[in-house]
Amino acid sequence: MKRGVMTMMVMAICVMAFGCEPLRFAPGEAMKTNAWVHYRTTQLAANEARNENASPELCGLTELSEKQSEAFVAYCGMPEELPATQTPEQILTDANHQLATAATEEAMQRPDPWQAADVLLQAGLAAVGVIGGVSGARIARALQKARDVNQAVREVIRGNEIFKRNNTDAVEAFKQAQQGQSTETKKIVAEIKAES
User: Fold this and answer.
1) What is the per-residue pLDDT across 96-105, written as a single tens digit (0 to 9) for each?
2) Domain extent listing, the chain
């Protein structure tokens, strides 16, 4: 049990220290299908280069590309449904160009840092509750309260932003009412606004 708690603490420290940029979602269906189409594209290109007696450099490049694309399929996994990729005409379609764009957009997605922290906090709550007994239950309640307050602050800030957009005449009064906020509060509010 202690090993699990230590692992979660190390993960939490890593997320706090390095952020969520290194975290990525698992490959989705668009990425899997695109990896397969890429593999088939490089296979056909290598075959065409050989069949047309292309230069040794071009043949070598297309063969290497074919081999490299196997790693993409291995990493992403096979798609649920294999698209038609037997001929160049089947590959060179608008749908496959759109697929490549969708796969790129999917690959660029990252988890929201607050969601990642929330997941770690939930896991910590569960571990503390199980391992800590009475003290653990108190700590778990305190952590849950912190989580609830965090969520409430986010909801209030989002609501305020919607209100200001819909009531432009009240924006100046809003700013004046918030003049007394501490620098730390202003910084947190600005970070939350930037995420929204």
Assistant:
1) 999 999 999 8
2) 24-108, 113-195
